[in-house]
Design brief:
single chain, about 120 residues, mainly beta, nine-stranded antiparallel β-sheet, 9 strands, globular
Amino acid sequence: MRKPIALVILVAALPMLSACGQPVADDKAAYVGEWHAQAMDVELTNYGTVRYKRVRNTTAGATTTTSINAPLRRFEGDNFVVGIAFLSTTFEVSTPPHREAGTWKMVVDGVELTRSP
């Protein structure tokens, strides 16, 4: 069975595409770091790599985990877009990074995160 050439090229290019994140601009430097909440972790590096993990309990009592390790595509206002080619997701930032009582915080997708020192 022959594999379509486009599929072979896409699979071969995925590792290269995933390494092509956008470096974080100086005006968004506060986003860089490891951010944590009880059931959610987000790490954004200076070089534009985003690692995300969120654990949720379903109504049926099961646990689901969502993980993303992908390049930063761009910022849209306070939100940031992560992914490759046509596969991307937008993280909605309702409260951008700010200091509160000496601790960095932000709210992403409705979850308040605290940045590790």
